[in-house]
Structure formats: structure tokens, C-alpha cells
Amino acid sequence: QVHLVESGGGLVQAGGSLRLSCTVSGLKFDTYSLAWFRHAPGKEREGVSFISVNGALTMYEDSVKGRFTISRDNAKNTLSLHIDNLKHEDTAVYYCAAGFSGGQWYETGLWHYWGQGTQVTVSS
Predict the structure, then answer these.
(1) What is the b/e burial string over 52-62, where b = at least 16 CB atoms within 10 angstroms of the residue's CB?
(2) CA distance linking residue 55 with residue 113, whole number of Å
């Protein structure tokens, strides 16, 4: 059975930094592309970052470029998201996803496996 478990969320002041982690089990980690999504109150779930199987390709949603850094450790089955210069609008539940079926990576329906999410709250 596939499990994705996010951690690292919390309450952070605007301008601060945070590192989210996602530990994956139940699949061959180094053969799966991965992504981070977020779901803010009153908004649809949106893709924030994508990373290819070997980490050579990364992609970001425009509003997070230059502040978010996605990375993976295939030896530890772990996906990470480092967030700098947090803004109030980054407040959301953050989810990791695996099992990409192809197409536009930011489309939620194209990902098969999801974690339960970790809450990030940015105070001003």
C-alpha cells in the first residue's frame, strides 16, 4: 500500500522560512515524478512545484518562483520543499503527490497518490 506522509508545517511569521518533507513508502520511489500542491481556504487546490524522477527537471508555479525550492532524496524516499520569504498568501494545506499520469503537472486529476497534507500558516 502506498503512503505519503507530509511534515514540517506550522505557524511562521511573514518573511520566515520553512522546510516541508514528504516520506513515501509502498512504491519504487526513484521511478516516480513528484509534486507539491497546496489548498488555501476558498481556493482550489493548486500545483506549486514539480520534480522529475532524477531531480534534473523542476518546475514552479509563477507566484512561488525564486522562493520555493523542491528537492528529492531517492536514497531516503523523501521529497522536500524549502520555502523562503513566506507570504500571507502562502497559507494553505500543502500536499505531496506521486503517480503522475502525464500532461500538465499542475492538474490535480493527473496524480494518483496523495498525502494527508500539512498546514502552513503565515502570520503578518
Answers:
(1) eeeeeeeebbe
(2) 19
pLDDT value at residue 36: 98
Q: How do beta strands 111-114 and 118-123 pair? A: unpaired
Residue 10 scores a pLDDT above 90: yes
Q: What is the average per-residue pLDDT within 59-88?
A: 97
* 31 vs 2: CA distance, rounded Å: 14
Degrees to nearest 5, angle at CA 11 with 5 and 15: 115
Predicted confidence (pLDDT) at residue 66 exceeds the cutoff of 90: yes
Q: Which amino acid is at 6?
A: E
**β pairing state of 34-39 and 92-100:** antiparallel
For residues 59-69, average pLDDT: 97
CA atoms of 117 and 51, how far apart (whole Å): 18
